Amino acid sequence: MASDSSPGGPRFLTASEAAERMRVSKMTVYRLIRSGKIRAVQIGKAYRVRESDLEEYLNSSYVDAG
After folding, report:
1. What is the mean pLDDT of residues 42-59?
2. Which of 4, 23, 24, 37 is deepest in the core (most CB within 10 A)?
3. Are strands 41-43 and 12-14 parallel, antiparallel or unpaired?
4. How far apart (Å, rounded) are the C-alpha atoms in residues 9 and 43?
């Protein structure tokens, strides 16, 4: 799990960067944000996802193959 306790504070990702990490489209990231599945902050019209929130979402999204 990536740490966001860098000297400058938490690391924020753009929707494009989050999409690239998850290998999905940017629109998918926006849908996840709007549905409340991924926490984000809105700065003007842009969204930023805290790296640790993205990791938390991914860790909670594993599918049980049973």
Report:
1. 96
2. 4
3. unpaired
4. 17
